[in-house]
Amino acid sequence: MGIIFGFIGIIFMLVIFVGVIFFAIFMARKIGFLKPLEEEEGQKNDMVCGFKSYLSDFKRLSDSLIFRFGIIAVLVGVMTIPLGMVSDIVSERSYLYRNVLDNISGTWGHQQKLQGPALLIPYTEKYISVKVLTDKDGNERKVNKTDYKQRTAIVLPEDLSIDANLQGKTRKRSLYEAQVYTADLKISGSFQLPNISHLSNNIEKVHWDRAWFSLGISDTQAINKVSQLVWQGSKSISQKVDFEPGTRIRKTFANGFHAPLNLSQDPRQNEPQTKYEEKKTYQFSLEINVNGSKGFYFTPFGKTTDVSIASDWPHPSFQGNVLPDEHEVSAEGFQANWSVPHLARNYPQVWTLETQNFDVNEFSAGVNLFESVSLYSQITRAIKYGVLFFVLTYITFLLFELGIGRRLHVVQYGMIGLALSMFYLTLLSMAEHAGFFNAYIVAATIIIIMISLYAYAAIRNFGKTLIITVLLIGLYSMLYSMLNLEDYALLAGTVLLLVILAVMMFLTRNIGKVSSES
């Protein structure tokens, strides 16, 4: 339906254009710019001769350079209609492409964010309050009321090390391909147990036997494999624990898993707090294999958090609250390292979940697997240069008209413009199957051959046609270069416009002299 309305619009604009031309001829006659022929003056009532008179006036008017530039301006405006139609098709296909990517991410794995780990230690608080009771005789007596509240202390690692290796993969659905990854994560570190009694003055008992280790990951459905938790305390306590679903602290870690721990088995629990406080350190390690897409992020939970991310993806985009201290990017991939102190965040090493609320997601860092120039963004950028290439092609033909003394018909200009418009539709339809580079070469070759043959049929000069062909090859080569310059595309386009303007000023420098001499 959009294509039908587009063609109707083109026809409508052409009708208006013809009407404007005849109105211009009429006004040119009124002001004396065009004078009727002598043989026509005696036959003003003859409609046939009148029509021939208008055709003669149109021919004389069309030979003027100002009129030819006007023709080019109008045709460029008309050709923006099919160009806009192609742009709408690109937007529609791009929207479909993003939907397919989201669908693939939903089945393979979304962007992953690692939260934690954290050690959770439950404890019981005891509150004794005195309540005064009065009996029916007015006698008062004091009664002690005891209340118990269950609390949970969250302890963050003393040091945390995350080693992530992201292996890029390609998943294809229909015509579209999505870049995803499989991540091998190695997580290790240590916990320094604090003096739990510092959290409250009303602690009755610390439940060491009910502690647990919790780790958050944003998309648990994409987990392929998780090793056992290796938990190392004193020489007599070293255990491997299987993980269980859920973090048990959904308000802090919405998704993830946990491992139950019995810290009461550690003989150091029976020692005085002041004696073992510096010695009570637990080492931990685990490995995860998980799928993901678009990017990988982490939260710096350690007092010192060291993160290393390596991948074969050549276009990383480092994001988050802190950038990597060191990074190296090449065509084979990238390597990035972070070292984040706990002072960079706004939550402490130890707090009570039930009485204190901190946003652990406020500070994160990571990398997006960025696709520098996607297929549809390249085509969209090419369409933005469409008007420029219409103008350059038309001016090329106009200069050759001046050089060979022949004039192309308005319809021929219109056909050339439609051929230029078809380049973008050809590029889009072929790029979805053969890739952008191959599609660009084929589409440009087809259009250059079509326009060159059409030009040869119009001017009947092989040498001039060959020059036009070379110029078209140069134009499309420059367009491809600008599309691949990425950050320098605007600068390259501006330089190209300045060069073209300088060439046009040089070629038209003697137009006023020629008309005055004649």
Would you kindly provide a written description of the structure presented here, covering whatever features stand out?
This protein has 518 residues and is an alpha+beta fold. The longest helix has 44 residues, at 65-108. The chain has helices at residues 2-30, 38-41, 47-62, 65-108, 273-276, 375-384, 386-404, 410-434, 436-459, 462-484, 489-507, 511-517, and strands at residues 112-134, 140-155, 159-173, 176-192, 203-206, 211-217, 223-226, 229-232, 238-241, 244-245, 256-261, 281-293, 295-298, 304-311, 316-320, 326-330, 333-341, 350-352, 365-369. Helix 4 (65-108) packs antiparallel against helix 6 (375-384) and helix 8 packs antiparallel against helix 9 (436-459). The protein has two domains: 2-99 and 376-510, no CATH class; 150-371, Sandwich (Immunoglobulin-like). Residues 37-48, 273-278 and 514-518 have low confidence and may be disordered. It is elongated.
